[in-house]
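Q: Hi! Curious about what OmpA family protein looks like structurally. Here's the sequence.
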Amino acid sequence: MKKFVLLFTAAILAVSASAQTVEESKTFDNIYVGINGGFATKTTGHAWMKGLDPNFGVRIGRNFTPVLGAAIESNAYFSNKPWNSTGTVVRYLNTSLLGTVNLSNWFGGYLGQPRPFEVSVVAGIGWGHLFGNSIEYDKAGAINNLTSKVALDFAFNLGADKAWQIYIEPAIMYGLNDKSNTPYNLGNDGTKFDINHSFVQLNAGVVYKFKNSNGTHNFKIAQLRDQSEIDGLNSQISDLRNELAKKPKEVIKEVIKEVPAEAVACPMFVTFAQGKADLTKDAKKALDNIANGATVEIIGTASPEGSAKVNKKVSQIRANNVAKYLKSKGVIVKDAVGKGVQGVTSNRLAVIYVK
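A: Let's find out. The predicted structure is below.
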């Protein structure tokens, strides 16, 4: 017993460790839906191939970690073999609540996406219902019963995104409280796992895994970083911000060489998004500080990306848009020229020189 407890504890720790390697899931992440079908036959008491019972089912589930999941499955059975006929197309319906354990991820670890081939254990309990309206069924207590399912899934994950999965599933289904003296093999005869009150089943299925909030159809490995690495990244971000803050000043130094000295009393600038020439709210707010009646010269610039022809055109449109806005505020625009890229550190600017 002690060895069993230790083994069980080690298993739980292994599952937990696997769960900690992936990003946290949101409520509707890692949900899948699938269909399956195949044949079942009574485990004992007759030749398997003479009593095949076709079935078709639907499964909806969710994976909570790369190892653990849960699903609801419902299968309809169409043949009466080897039992008495119920006189209905669907003889029996079994609905199960299942737990799933991905053995491949448990013992091999999760690699960031599903393996091409995986093996999982599926097990749970369910409720079975026998169709038909005969009073004889009711007298026999043969309408509903408690069931259990134990299966292995041999799954193949398909596609670049591993969103689709096909699987083959051998299983054994138990009628936990079947009566042994009814022609319908259902009823209440005490709850127990009895191979004489079971049938074996071989199904094949296909599953589609819906897209998650992380942009994939599966779990994503979490990028775990220690504090020293975080501090280093923050330092790099701070350095980049400082360099970016210097760039507008460098651009002004490049452009100022081409402007007459009397026009450089009060230079200012506004910035633009890459490839854009529209004035932002912040840009308009800055331009509003130029007094009505002031005289300005405007030079538009562009960043090094793109061809010289495109940069020249974009910089001119930027200068024109600034000029148009200032004119609407009563500012006198002496000149508005697009210069394209100015120097090697040019940002996306319009530099305004106020006389």
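A: A fun detail: The first helix runs from residue 2 to 19.
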